[in-house]
Predict the 3D structure of the following.
Amino acid sequence: MGDMRAIADRVEIEALRAELTDAVMMRDFERAVSLFTPEGAMRWPHIDKEFVGRAEIRAGIEWGQSLWEFFVQNVHPGVIRVDGDTAAGRAYIQEFGRMRDGSSHLNYALYQDRYERTADGWKFSERIYEVRYLDSTPLRGSAPKRLGLS
């Protein structure tokens, strides 16, 4: 039974990470913050920003998304280590887009995560974004006039 619980925990945490990526990409800020514990934290040391608690996290995500003309984030699975009702993990990120000021942005990064099992399932207790490579070369492509998703 223990092995099945460990597998289930990893699957649930991976689903949590995917849900947050989708919520941010779809600009569903309420859904995004619901994936954090009430006292959770999101940290972006490369721009010296830290948001603690759901209200600050929501404001931080909204602020960050407001800077983009368009934005795409691809998340790749990383390690997850479960220890009872807490866990730690890493997810690998590739992002690109154009900022509203016209600058382009491509980076490779990772999330250093901490998770907590709650009555509502696994939630983020901390997410730290670490940029490992940044390229500001102008992007050659463009966003379609109307994206097919809503």
